[in-house]
Write a structure and sequence with these properties.
Order of helices and strands: EHHHHHHHEEEEHEEE
Helix content: 55-70%
Distance between the termini: 12 Å
Largest sheet: 6 strands, antiparallel
Radius of gyration: 33 Å
Oligomer: single chain
Strand content: 5-15%
Low-confidence stretches: 137-151, 260-264, 360-373
Number of strands: 8
Shape: elongated
Number of helices: 8
Strand order of the largest sheet: 2-3-4-5-1-6
Length: about 375
């Protein structure tokens, strides 16, 4: 573990849950009182109560996510309502506070019923407007006398609106236009058979529009899931970086984000000590699942005294890394060594001006691999 070490990182379930709940609470607009209480109980929980606290917090987080989904659906329907200028009631969004899981679940059930009713009402408004357009008499054409007017089948418009009411209200403009064009065929229907054919065409266009709308919804859900996964990975990586920084700072190292060409966004850290003028440690957190570290020289070794000092620094670094692992474990970050070099196995690489390390030679062949330590 001298000039090189790799460790697999596993975050404790409580850490992962805490980071996830904080994301959800932030999206909800406020730190929910109930959520904050559960996280505090989880952090302070004794071993015998930790499993119960974890399960309760997980259940609460799922309920929070359900609330946010309903809020998002209500927001989308509100946009459709405003577009149509319709007078349709929608449930007010809920900002979680001190509600219990049972109360959040009950609110979601009520919201589902209200949102389903609002979606159906908006579909009805859209259907009625298309029906009006299809059967309206153009203003520039004189209305026929009653004796000359072809009577409209009493159930034709109602049948059209029943078909149109199946159109999802958030269908794209192009799909709405395609449905409306098919519906206008009814105006030219000369026989009952023509009318039925036109209704069949409307049904097909509505089905196609709904299929595309559902596909669009599915794509949006996938995008949201991908964004959530990216946020989760960033949060976990940031937590690992902060935990690593705190652990080594407590051990007397100065930790700087990035080295030369790398930045903190790369997960790169440079560890130095005031009593190590010729040595430093390059470290990189590769996502939240692995950390790599290398002890390097600032300039090439000159003679046996420098080589003996290298071995001394390697031994100090080895001991510090083991102590840091214990501190990381206490913070919920398990670091299992997957690969390491023992002190004295090879000459330390020399840090180049661009921040990369250059290997100067080997002291001895061989490396030690360690799994699951």
């Amino acid at each position: 573990m001298s000039s090189g070490v790799e460790a697999d990182i596993v975050l404790d379930a409580a850490v992962v849950l805490t980071l996830g709940m904080n994301r959800v609470l932030g999206r909800g607009g406020a730190a929910a009182g109930r959520g904050a209480q559960l996280l505090a109980a989880l952090a302070a929980g004794r071993a015998e109560s930790r499993a119960a606290a974890l399960a309760e917090a997980e259940t609460y987080e799922r309920a929070l996510r359900e609330v946010l989904e309903r809020n998002a659906r209500a927001e989308a329907l509100a946009a459709t309502r405003d577009e149509l200028g319709a007078d349709v009631a929608l449930p007010a969004p809920l900002t979680p506070g001190d509600e219990t899981v049972a109360e959040l679940t009950a609110w979601c059930a009520d919201a589902d019923r209200a949102l389903d009713a609002a979606e159906a009402a908006l579909a009805g408004v859209l259907a009625a407007r298309v029906g009006e357009q299809v059967f309206a008499v153009p203003a520039e054409v004189p209305a026929p006398r009653a004796a000359e007017a072809a009577p409209e089948p009493p159930d034709l418009r109602a049948a059209l609106e029943r078909v149109l009411a199946r159109l999802l209200p958030d269908a794209a403009d192009a799909d709405r236009a395609a449905v409306a064009r098919a519906a206008r065929l009814l105006a030219d229907a000369a026989t009952g058979q023509d009318a039925q054919g036109a209704l069949t065409e409307v049904r097909l266009r509505v089905q196609e529009a709904n299929d595309r709308t559902r596909e669009h919804r599915a794509r949006e859900r996938r995008r949201a899931a991908e964004a959530e996964a990216a946020e989760r990975a960033a949060d976990e990586r940031r937590y690992v970086l902060e935990s690593v920084t705190a652990a080594f700072e407590d051990l007397g190292y100065e930790v700087r984000a990035g080295f030369e060409t790398l930045t903190a966004a790369d997960g790169a850290l440079l560890l130095t000590r005031g009593d190590w003028p010729d040595h430093s440690v390059k470290m990189r957190v590769e996502d939240a699942g692995r950390v790599r570290a290398a002890l390097v020289r600032e300039r090439a070794a000159r003679g046996e005294d420098d080589r003996r000092l290298d071995v001394e620094r390697e031994e100090q670094w080895c001991a510090a890394f083991e102590e840091a692992r214990a501190r990381l474990a206490a913070a919920g970050v398990a670091a299992a060594v997957a690969w390491r070099l023992e002190p004295g196995v090879r000459e330390l690489p020399v840090m180049r001006a661009d921040g990369a390390a250059r290997q100067t030679g080997a002291r001895a062949a061989g490396r030690e691999r360690e799994r699951g330590r």
